[in-house]
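Give me structure tokens for this 347-residue protein.
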Amino acid sequence: MKVGDRFSARRPAAARPKPLERAVFPGFLTVLLLTFAALLWLLAAAALTVRPAAAQQAPAEGGATLPLELPDGEADPGIARLGDALQQMKTQNPVVARVDGYEIRWAEVLTSADDLPERYRDQIESVFPALLDRLVDIRLLANAARDQGVAEEEAVRRSLARYEDKLLSGLLLERYLAEEVTTAKVRERYDSLVAVRRANREMRARHILVETEEEAQSLITKLDEGAVFPTLAREHSIGPSAERGGDLGYFFARRMEPAFAAALLTLEPGVYTPSPVETDFGWHVILLVDRRDDDVPSFLDMQAQLREEVTKEAIGRLIGGLRQRADLEMFPEDGAAAGGEAQGSSQ
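Here you go.
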């Protein structure tokens, strides 16, 4: 058999449907599709001035791809009307062609445009006929390859298995990350970062230290009535800062008693604690005087970086869990160990 005969070979007619037939559409799409067909005719003039696209789909493993001829130059006047028809048909996803019984649907043609340069993706109504022709030709070539048993070759089966693994793993990751990496979780990461940085910046505060909760609450009542904080500190505080009006100067909150530091972090400058704070030294009334400016960027400035961090951690959790549950053997390590034992036994 000649090479040309091999590529034109087909299964017996009884075993195959007609080589290529256009779809029979439901009645409610008939008018729309007739309009679409008429508008496609308007593109015939544009098709006379086509050129190969600058960027073609990346070739599959071990093979070449069909060139895709795309229109160049000014758009035909019918393009706008064709675009309207395309928008209406997106919701129906009809069959636009049948190749040996295989149905090519509207959405499949649109998806095939993902590998095109952006300028062509933005004018899908112009490239739709070329995309449909390419899908038809790809299906015809694939059918010819199956007829010749190419799909049963070991190398081809391995390539298909690798592609299937990539496709399935990509889909799983996409769905997993859609649940695990949300704007709310990214915001939680940002808020935690802000809390840590604010805890590590310098603050200036005054406090009044007394022995009982009742005394501290009485001082808060006086402050609510307009008393001056430094004056009350000098008159009532039993701490060493009393003579300075309770001024503790600038310090890092993390170096203070945990309860004292936690209370400080809830205050804004000029605000005192609404209730007494207990530590090992006694009961405190605390006034935040000042807080050094922090260098925390805004959430919008950090969102991309934080989303990447959350994504990496989510993938790590997923992969780590899968590895723990899998029956996994790393043969390079076993092989190295075996090689070392073999060398030792030969000496």
